[in-house]
Design brief:
mainly alpha; 390 residues; 0% strand; 18 helices; single chain
């Protein structure tokens, strides 16, 4: 072959072996479905462990009294006349429903409590995920499951606190969803759940105060109009009426004394002050040993805190000696020391979130650089602009 022919001969192409694409794995640790399954498993482990201990242990609190009162009322006893339950109306209704469905035992109210707590966890995860993302939602639900279920931490069993917490979580979750999507069908359940929480224990009014303060601050900070705030309040009141009106009508039909009605703890002192004191003294029961011991103690020794306690707590503490009071305080403070941790975690998370949003990232988000701002960032950006930090 001549040199010119060799020059124009095409160069040989290197043969590249053909590789088949590697099969895509169906299991992706970052997929939403996998994250949801892992979260559900990790939250369910402490939850069902706590329930197993709870269902297989004798209830150390007032569950037996609640169940007995519920069965007595089902059999025809009148509230306040034939039966004077120690449970407040919310706890009493849950126990009546549990005894009606599952018979005369503590199992029914505990099962209803378990379903309410599971629903609260689901709503809490949905809302937290929309606000802060999947990882914070997963961590929050798992920690909540531990604190709500661990017998060494939680007041377990058929108790008013567990029912109240479930309704508070569901009410706040529905309220936050209403703030995010503006749908009335989220506002009415929020009003129903939030208004039902104080029927278990007066502490439930704290969530009503938080929601009320939030609604009032919205128009003051010019985040919402007064018209929108009024509509929000009306939807919440409508949801509260749906749950409270049937209870009040039932009590009125049964001619129940007024101090058993919903929210009677708010107007009970007024009604007692308006009553004839002479008629009240004629109907007073005979003095007991605890009354005599309390009368022997000077008012200064009882203190202001003792006067603010509920009557059943105040009376029981007044019959204790100094050493017994010391031991009781140590036991009570033990529970509150354990409760400080989740409160501190929540406060720390809120502070860090606010600092992170105000510290510069919101500026990029405001200018359109970066990812889309989340609902909480929109609210804080608006607030930052109002106070002149933007």
């Amino acid at each position: 072959m001549s040199k010119s022919a060799r020059k124009h001969r095409p160069a040989k192409k290197l043969h590249k072996p053909h590789h088949e694409p590697a099969p895509v794995s169906k299991f992706n640790i970052k997929s939403p479905a996998v994250i949801l399954i892992i979260t559900a498993v990790l939250a369910a482990i402490p939850f069902f462990m706590g329930k197993y201990i709870e269902f297989n242990s004798p209830d150390p609190f007032d569950s037996g009294c609640y169940v007995y009162s519920a069965q007595h009322i089902i059999n025809g006893a009148r509230i306040g006349v034939d039966e004077k339950p120690s449970a407040q109306m919310g706890t009493l209704l849950i126990n009546i429903l549990g005894v009606r469905l599952f018979g005369f035992s503590e199992t029914g109210p505990k099962l209803i409590q378990m379903l309410l707590q599971a629903a609260a966890f689901v709503l809490m995860f949905i809302v937290t995920r929309r606000l802060f993302g999947t990882l914070p939602a997963a961590v929050g639900v798992i920690i909540a499951s531990i604190y709500l279920s661990a017998p060494l931490i939680a007041k377990f069993g058929n108790v008013k606190e567990q029912h109240m917490i479930a309704f508070m979580i569901m009410g706040m979750s529905c309220f936050v969803l209403y703030q995010l999507n503006g749908k009335w069908w989220c506002a009415m359940p929020a009003g129903a759940f939030l208004s039902f929480a104080p029927l278990f224990k007066e502490t439930g009014t704290s969530v009503l105060g938080a929601v009320g303060l939030f609604l009032i601050l919205q128009p003051l900070l010019k985040h919402n109009s007064w018209k929108k705030t009024g509509a929000d309040i009306l939807w919440l009141l409508a949801g509260a009426a749906v749950i409270l009106a049937p209870i009040s009508i039932w009590l009125a039909v049964e001619r129940t004394p007024i101090h058993y009605y919903p929210y009677s703890f708010l107007y009970r002192p007024i009604v007692a002050a308006l009553e004839n004191p002479q008629a009240g003294s004629e109907n007073e029961p005979a003095a007991t040993d605890s009354d005599e011991v309390a009368a022997e103690k000077p008012a200064a020794e009882q203190g202001i805190l003792m006067k603010l306690l509920p009557s059943y707590v105040r009376d029981s503490w007044q019959v204790l000696g100094p050493e017994q009071i010391k031991q009781a305080r140590l036991r009570v403070l033990r529970w509150y020391r354990l409760l400080i941790l989740p409160i501190a975690l929540a406060i720390g998370a809120i502070i860090l979130r606010i600092v992170r949003i105000i510290s510069g990232r919101p500026t990029k988000l405001k200018e359109g650089i970066g990812r889309r701002p989340m609902p909480t960032q929109k609210v804080l950006l608006s607030f930052k602009g109002r106070i002149g930090l933007g």
